[in-house]
Amino acid sequence: MPPNKTSASDWAPAFAAVPRSAFLPDVMWPFDMDTGRSVTVGKADDPEAWRAYADADVPIVTQWDDGEGDGLDPGRLATSSASMPSVVFSMLRDLDVRPGHRVLEIGTGTGYNAALLAHRLGVADVVSMEVDGGVAATARAALRRFGMPVEVVTGDGFLGHVAGAPYDRIIATCGLRAIPYAWVEQARPGGVIVVPWGTDYVRQDAVVRLVVDDDGARASGRFTGPVEFMKLRAQRRAWPRHGDYVPAEGVAGAGVSSTTTLAEGDFVRDRFDVLRFALGLRVPACLCAVADKRDGVRPVWLYGLSDRSWACVLFREGRSTATVHQGGPRRLWDETEAAHAWWKERGEPGFERFGLTVGADGTRAWVDEPSASWPVRGG
Ligand SMILES: C[S@@+](CC[C@H](N)C(=O)[O-])C[C@H]1O[C@@H](n2cnc3c(N)ncnc32)[C@H](O)[C@@H]1O
């Protein structure tokens, strides 16, 4: 059963009673929507800006580079944050908690989401897991200070927390590329698992809402919409090194060159567009990088992640065909073009027509019905 409107509005008192500011550090790095960058904001230096960002619907980075970065400047990789409140809200709505439910959260971060859950369910029925010892300790202290001493377990949430099982609800607040079967095993039959999940093709995720079967053997359900989360620590993907794929002479060294009639607009879309998600579901172990347009030419690169296959498509302004170069054992552009046709043939399904089934034998993706499914990267 999808969550109903009543359960969504049930969250209003919790959001009113639990201010995000109570869980934010004195120095933080909110994402500035105007510049598209993280900015450093200190409570002591600029209390008004600090407060305004704390109350704004923006994600706020609270740790860089697993805590190794020092100084006040943003680091290279954001590794902990307070998520955007509107995303926190929509995922909690998808979770559809009811009084008496026991919840496991993966990714404590600041502790804000755990406090919202504890406000609804009581401190004793919420367990939160955080892989980073420093982040976990800070969240534990903030939760205690706020009067909601939720149990924060320091450890790898991929394994779940068997000592606290069974759970009625499991929610991950970091992005996954493979969902562990342990979460299905630790959830009750009929339980709900909400996870930001995605493929290697793009950085973005989509929230999937899995419901555990009556016999507890599998969990299955549809996607609710696109999001972007920092990834589970062990599932971060290093960016492929271009030089490891493409020969020194560049695209001229491709094994095969051809043309495509797929137009730039048919392929290059907004980062949250469902087409990018759908292509990732159909083209396994492949990463797509859309480069900036220069002198009217837009290069799109595809890198194979299980071998050194690559492809480059050059979309030229005003031309009805684009040039394609492909190297290595796989023909990554041909696979992508076939996936594009597959998506069109099915009437360009949106996120909600796609779903996942997680079982002991792996994870399978499907469109419309679980019966017509194919394997994707599993836990
Ligand atoms: C977006 S933040 C979570 C936001 C948090 N729920 C809040 O309300 O502030 C993601 C968190 O997941 C944590 N994380 C990453 N990998 C993890 C893992 N394997 N197990 C548990 N936590 C993990 C990160 O350290 C980070 O703190």
Describe, in plain words, how this protein is organized in 3D:
By secondary structure, the chain is an alpha+beta fold. It folds into two domains: 5-173, Vaccinia Virus protein VP39 (Rossmann fold, 3-Layer(aba) Sandwich); 242-345, Bacterial toxin RNase RnlA/LsoA, N repeated domain (Double Stranded RNA Binding Domain, 2-Layer Sandwich), CATH 3.30.160. It has helices at residues 5-9, 12-17, 47-55, 85-95, 112-121, 133-145, 181-186, 242-245, 264-267, 274-282, 332-345, and strands at residues 27-32, 37-38, 41-42, 60-64, 78-82, 103-106, 126-130, 151-154, 167-172, 187-197, 205-212, 219-227, 256-260, 286-290, 297-304, 310-316, 322-327, 354-359, 362-367, 373-376. The strands form three sheets. The protein has a ten-stranded mixed beta sheet, sandwiched between helices. Strand 7, helix 6 and strand 8 form a beta-alpha-beta unit. The site of S-adenosylmethionine has 25 residues, from strand 5, helix 5 and strand 7.
List keywords for this structure.
single chain; 379 residues; alpha+beta; Rossmann fold; Double Stranded RNA Binding Domain; 2 domains; ten-stranded mixed β-sheet; five-stranded antiparallel β-sheet; 11 helices; 20 strands; 30% strand; globular; disordered N terminus; binds S-adenosylmethionine
Summarize the helices and strands and which ones pair or pack.
Blueprint: H1 5-9, H2 12-17, E1 27-32, E2 37-38, E3 41-42, H3 47-55, E4 60-64, E5 78-82, H4 85-95, E6 103-106, H5 112-121, E7 126-130, H6 133-145, E8 151-154, E9 167-172, H7 181-186, E10 187-197, E11 205-212, E12 219-227, H8 242-245, E13 256-260, H9 264-267, H10 274-282, E14 286-290, E15 297-304, E16 310-316, E17 322-327, H11 332-345, E18 354-359, E19 362-367, E20 373-376
Parallel strand pairs: 6-7, 6-9, 7-8, 9-10
Antiparallel strand pairs: 1-2, 1-3, 1-4, 4-5, 10-11, 11-12, 12-18, 13-17, 14-15, 15-16, 16-17, 18-19, 19-20
The structure holds S-adenosylmethionine (SAM).
Residues 79-83, 106-107, 109-110, 112-113, 129-132, 135, 156-158, 173-174, 229-230, 232-233 line the site of S-adenosylmethionine.
